[in-house]
Design brief:
This protein is of the alpha/beta class. 36% of the residues lie in helices and 13% in strands. Strands 2-1-3-4 form a 4-stranded parallel beta sheet, with helices on both faces. Strand 1 (13-16), helix 1 (21-29) and strand 2 form a beta-alpha-beta unit. It is globular. The two termini are 34 Å apart.
Length: 171
């Protein structure tokens, strides 16, 4: 995990419909500004998409028929997270590589994580984590602390496999 900078922010801002909460979390981890509300009407979702100039991610075929959303949505075909990420990687060139420097976001709050010194992180993490890690990030909103542990390596392996399957599927 490298120190984030504002220059590393991805260009696209998304909004995920109520069926795509898991995808919203993954995109936030990847650094993409992804709005998500569990309970939102179609009308409110369309209004927010337009007002905040976001790209709508949806599985709702009827929703994308609205004229206001033409040219500002992706209709996802897959039910599973791997298939959804693969489609976004293919269709929108979403960067699925965790080794690229970027400003990561809190999976819960969608707020850009900030660097946290080892001294400030140590009292907030398990002792073994404080001993083994020197790099920490924190969500300024919920105060959750993050570090590049084994979960980060697992995410990276999974994303690498998704990227490879995307390349295999291309003609």
């Amino acid at each position: 995990m490298k120190k984030p900078s504002l220059l590393d922010q991805p260009v696209l801002c998304f909004i995920a419909d109520a069926m795509l909460g898991r995808l919203a979390r993954w995109l936030r981890i990847l650094g993409y500004d992804t709005a998500y509300e569990k309970m939102i009407t179609d009308e409110a979702l369309v209004e927010r998409t337009l007002r905040e100039d976001r790209w709508l991610l949806t599985r709702d075929r009827r929703l994308v028929l609205r004229k206001l959303l033409r040219g500002r949505h992706t209709l996802l075909d897959a039910d599973d997270i791997d298939g959804q990420l693969r489609q976004l990687h293919r269709d929108l060139a979403i960067d699925l590589d965790l080794t690229h420097q970027r400003a990561y976001r809190c999976a819960d709050c969608n707020v850009v994580l900030t660097s946290l010194s080892h001294a400030d992180a140590a009292p907030q993490v398990p002792p073994v984590v404080a001993q083994e890690h020197r790099e920490f990030l924190q969500c300024p909103q919920c105060r959750r602390v993050f570090w590049p542990g084994t979960h980060w390596q697992d995410l990276d392996r999974r994303l690498t496999a998704i990227r490879a399957r995307t390349l295999d599927a291309q003609p």
